[in-house]
Amino acid sequence: MTDEIYETPSTTPNFRTELAAQLADLVPEAIADGKVDVEKLKELLDDDVADGVERFGLFWPGKKRAMRAAQEPTTATLKPDFENSKDWDTTKNVFIEGDNLEVLKILQKHYHAKIKMIYIDPPYNTGKDFVYPDNYKEGLDTYLEWTRQVNEEGKKVSTNAETEGRYHSNWLNMMYPRLKLARNLLTDDGVIFISVDDNEVAHLRKVCDEVFGEQNFIASVVWQGGRKNDSRYVSVGHDYLLIYVRNESWLREHETRWRERKAGVDDALTAAKEIWEESGHDAASATRRFRSWLSAKSNLTPAVSRFKNIDAQGRVYNADKDLGWPGGGGPKFDVLHPVTGKPVSVPSTGWRFTEDRLREQIEAGLVEFGPDESKIPRGKTFLDELDEQVVESVFTQIRTTAAQRLARLIGPGIFDFPKDEHVLARWLKLAGGDDKDAIILDFFAGSGSTAHAVMQLNAEDGGRRRSISVQLPEPTPDKSGARKAGFATIADIARERIRRAGDKIREEHEELTSTHDVRFDAGFRAYKLADTNFSKWRLSSDVEEDALQQHLLSLRDSATDDATVDDLLTEILLKQGYSLTEDISPAEIGGLDVRLVRDRDGDVAVLAYLNEHVKPTLEQLRALVDESPTRIIVLEDAFQGDDELKTNLAQLCKSKGIELWTA
């Protein structure tokens, strides 16, 4: 009967075990007695194995421990935070409050190879306090204690002074396991962007070469954000944006190219559209007004400002295309001027097109004639068809502008150095290409700039991109502007910024979003990192004997008494591989309070009964089976030791082709 009942896993995937299984499948001759034979593996790899003594790489104290931290499974879960959410029932965006190392492990089951883009702005290594716990063995306990969910000792913070011998090592030990886990989440064409400054850019580059593969390095972009006049030697006003992809060979095979419009094109097109409407669709009037707008814009590049005309269809153009045949030898024929009726001058090299083709061009309005027949006509080129360009590795965007926009949104003096949402939107659009359904992850969310950028992009192009933001509830300083404004933590700031940004974007783009086929998503589901809701899953291997006896006694009630049905269901779904944005609704079936999870077609994918205190009857369970879900989940303790009832349910499920899961 156990073959017909599935048990929910208690932890996230064990990556060491999974890697061994992959090796067993790939090179079975390297597995002996269930263990990896390293010497045999070396023998099979032959010349591809690096010398054990002299090899290239970055090494630092604690690296092996950091690697193990990424592989170690966790029993932690996420708890729904309905109070801090916005549009819970309809949104596909997620905000998670918690230590990102634990959260990244939790995300592995469902989001493995599903994240298109990751942007992170990790804390720079400036010699100040670290707020990310690095006690890997008890990572969740450290986090719970830090956030006062366990006791009143307050947060644990380890200093990282430059005088300490492990100054760089501490930062790398924090980053390494997070990057390892992040790589697992990327799609084949996935991209990760990492902001960093001079203190660690050289070390981070080497770490990323190891984690992502140096062949997957794309660029080290320089972001010039201002200047510092108080510098002793050189005003260093730039940061770096390291860009790596999951699989550069995949991008190359699929001929992926990153291109964007030339700077200023979108602004000019927007202005022209407004002028065209205001001028009553009069081309001459619109052209005069558009040229006045161009003359006032001194920052436009010549590539854009040369487009000075608006035609009868409201398109911005420039008549600069030579209609002569390149190199000579083109056809020669008469073309009559539309006003004088006389043949116009013919290019000395002949026409670029055949007579029929040129007349099609003229009829389509793609040729502009001079005031009389003495001028050779010119072909029109249009601003909205301007060739896209490769993005440059150096760009300037003053940081204070992003800070000013954030201050107007949530108040002054609340968050000093937010990342620029416009810059992030630019890179997300560049790397995302035509994929408007991408999932974007930021596990150092800060003030929520990435989630803001995702909403901005969706409003502009009708995309369905989804954001996942993860932020530690780092307390704001006691006397700070943020604390005075009522923000106790950085996570509080981020959630409020996302709320207000969504409302503002919807208001500013109401006309645009109303024309899109999809509903603009300005909400997010909030979750908080928490310990497992199941006492039977909390046991560690080094538990003392007395604690073991107490643990075994506690298994009479596996679910924590204060855990809600939604808490239990969220944890079970995550550990079974479902997403954080499933369509969940309560229902009553056969007199039992249950939860339904529906698929995209509206069919019941999961039916869950999670009340361990009320034992269902066989008829009630039969009613659940009659709903024909794909999967039924029942708490083990709901059977209250009645193996016959459990067996009968298993048989009912088997007869209907339904998976039965317990937890």
UniProtKB/TrEMBL annotation:
The residue ranges crossing the membrane are none
Keyword terms: Methyltransferase, S-adenosyl-L-methionine, Transferase
Give the GO molecular function terms.
DNA binding; N-methyltransferase activity
**GO annotation (BP), single:** methylation
Going by the entry's taxonomy, the superkingdom of the source organism is recorded as Bacteria
Keyword Transcription regulation attributed:
no
Family matches, as SUPFAM superfamilies: S-adenosyl-L-methionine-dependent methyltransferases (SSF53335)
All copies of the DNA methylase N-4/N-6 domain together span: 115-459
Its family remark reads: Belongs to the N(4)/N(6)-methyltransferase family.
The protein in question is named: Adenine-specific DNA-methyltransferase
Q: Which organism is it from?
A: Pseudonocardia thermophila
